[in-house]
Amino acid sequence: GDVNEFKDFAKAMVDYVGNYLENIRDRRVLPTVEPGYLRPLIPETAPDTPDTWQEVMSDIERVIMPGVTHWHSPKFHAYFPTANSYPAIVADILSDSIACIGFTWIASPACTELEVVMLDWLGKMLDLPKEFLACSGGKGGGVIQGTASEATLVALLGAKAKTMQRVKEAHPDWKDSDIIANLVGYCSGKHSTTGHAGLAGGVVPLRRFKPNTPQSKKLCSAFICPENIEEDLKKGKIPFYVVATLGTTNCCAFDCLEEIGQVCRQKDVWLHVDAAYAGSAFICPENRYLMKGVELADSFNFNPHKWMLVTFDCSAMWLKDPSWVVNAFNVDPLYLKHDQQGSAPDYRHWQIPLGRRFRSLKLWFVLRLLGVKYLQEYIRKQISLAKEFEQLVRSDDRFEVIYEVLMGLVCFRLKGPNEINEKLLKRINGNGKIHLVPSKIRDVYFLRMAVCSRYSESSDMIYSWNEIKTLTEELLKEEKE
Ligand code: PLP
């Protein structure tokens, strides 16, 4: 199309987006459409001759918005947050315009080099050990992955390569297939991504650590068991990979990283840290006690695209020794070779796909235009909103808060059987004024209230709580009848 038309269209879109986001609170957070709602709203085939951008714009409210779940509404409390901010949106316009594929340094030097430096900036914001940072001059460095799941898989493949080499040196007569068959990895969290990584990585699904005793509902979700590893060693297994979770998906529990890390160091097992959601909170020094022991890890990952105002996808990963991953992925056909090879990371070796977007621009814009202090205050405010909601729940003795509130997540339930809680949640989501998802731990079903929106205020906590209380009263009344 014509550039003047592009400029008009883009300006109109920027106006639309600004209005959408600033007024998002007024929309029903959950759509009411039925499956299949969309097909009848648009033609059966693509147009032969172009529509106008004005026609396209006018279809957004008609076709798209009725089927949107508004993740950035302060009435959205499901899952975990996914980030959104104006600097990140603008950065993506630039990234989509440069539209390079940054698989080698020469394919766009800025794409690689900004990423190296941004991961150093970010690592310093979290006070990560310098062994993880490229600026330390050692082997370590960071990379942006698409998702935490990819980071878990990438680390697993590095761990596998490292262990294969160690075992083969000790037992040159062992076949690869026999070694692989005996590899065993461990995780604490129940997150499906870790299981996927085990399967996709061609090793058995990762074994779970025994969970901690039920009365300690606080920090340690995994009761790290040197016994797990000892037992497996005795059986001839080869422990090679542990994923420790800081901030589990279902209840935001934290593994005892220090304890797990010491076992990993003793047994030469790769320790990967998945801090997908909670990692952003480590930009605030007061939360860093939860990542004590991080110096014992081999790789560390968190998602700025969850809680640090950088839009999806931006999953930050650091490796102390990326050479294991690089060797596992090395793809070097002639057309990807270049003269500067080795002087800067060729990030294609650090990830699963070959192609990669210029994602570090989003980080650069967000960090510069918001600044570290603002981001710290943002995290603090979201945690304090969760604590406000917690107090509202605690003020009503029909309810219980079942895990300590450390981040922006409150896990709560109506005292009593699971069924009544299931009914309550169905009502909440059916009413569509607010949106929550449940979870279940040791057969106890509960509701999760995550503070997700950057627009969230105290009044939103009160609004959501009042909605829950009203529907509870209706439900309890009906149950009595
Ligand atoms: N790990 C944890 C602890 C998570 O909470 C989540 C998502 O909520 C993930 C991994 C998956 O993240 P991604 O969608 O980036 O793979």
Essential attributes:
single chain; 481 residues; alpha/beta; seven-stranded mixed β-sheet; four-stranded antiparallel β-sheet; 14 helices; 11% strand; binds pyridoxal-5'-phosphate; pyridoxal phosphate; lyase; pyridoxal phosphate binding
Question: Can you describe what's shown?
Answer:
- By secondary structure, the protein is of the alpha/beta class.
- 42% of the residues lie in helices and 11% in strands.
- The protein has 14 helices and eleven strands.
- The strands form two sheets. Strands 1-7-6-5-4-2-3 form a seven-stranded mixed β-sheet, with helices on both faces. A four-stranded antiparallel β-sheet has the order 8-9-11-10.
- The protein is globular, with a radius of gyration of 24 Å.
- The termini are far apart.
- Residues 213-220 have low confidence and may be disordered.
- The structure holds pyridoxal-5'-phosphate.
- Pyridoxal-5'-phosphate (PLP) is lined by residues 80, 147-149, 189, 191, 193, 245, 247-249, 274, 276-277, 303, 315.
